[in-house]
Write a structure and sequence with these properties.
This protein is an alpha+beta fold and about 210 residues long. The chain contains 4 helices and 11 strands. It holds the Pfam family NUDIX.
Length: about 210
């Protein structure tokens, strides 16, 4: 193939995340709700019957479906299904920064407003119960941080003979940070805490960003 042909083939292409077609995509919604005249964030506690992360605290959300035209549609659909509310009960949906992780997932977080807590009827197949936390708590308290060291272990037939250093190759050991909030005997951590911390950083004008 001639160089000119290659350049003509690619010149109008729009860059995207490499390998994005093979990534699993999910959306979550940070639900804001007014409780006794104060702004609160609503959380779910996952049903203990779920196969993954039973009993964990999370935001409403789930996998992007083929029928969803946009990740926003996923956030709305999952929120209404899990909380037993209508689409009219969810408004003012705004996207936050999305997340790409090494497990082959893209997560699209959104912020949105719920009309009321009283109308919520959680789906027991997915949600054990819900609770709210005053937004002021997260503005006044920073999460505790803990490091997790990830081990690199090549498979048995890894071709060491093809790389400089062979079996003595110095892999860069990776460390990831996990965040923890604790409120009223509830632990908020993992991806939920990371998304929450990102949201708080966007609205906390007392901090330098």
């Amino acid at each position: 193939m001639q160089i000119e042909n290659i350049l003509n083939e690619l010149k109008d292409r729009t860059p995207a995340l490499m390998g994005h077609k093979h990534f699993k995509r999910s959306s979550v919604l940070i639900p804001l709700v007014e409780v006794a005249g104060e702004s609160h964030i609503l959380f779910e506690v996952r049903s203990k019957n779920l196969r993954t992360q039973p009993g964990d605290v999370c935001f409403p959300g789930g996998r992007v479906d083929q029928k969803d035209k946009h990740p926003t549609d996923t956030a709305i659909r999952e929120t209404t299904e899990e909380l037993g509310i209508s689409e009219e009960d969810v408004s003012e949906i705004i996207p936050l920064d999305y997340i790409v992780n090494d497990l082959g997932r893209i997560i699209y977080p959104f912020i949105g407003k719920l009309k009321t807590v009283e109308s919520i009827k959680p789906n027991p197949d997915e949600v054990d119960h819900i609770f709210t936390v005053p937004l002021s708590f997260f503005l006044e308290n920073t999460p505790k941080k803990y490091k997790v060291h990830l081990e690199i272990k090549p498979e048995d037939n890894f071709p060491y003979h093809l790389i400089v250093g062979g079996e003595d190759y110095e892999w860069h050991i990776r460390t990831m940070e996990e965040l923890f909030y604790q409120y009223d005997n509830k632990t908020i951590w993992g991806l939920t805490a990371k998304i929450l911390t990102h949201f708080i950083s966007l609205i906390d004008t007392k901090k330098d960003h």
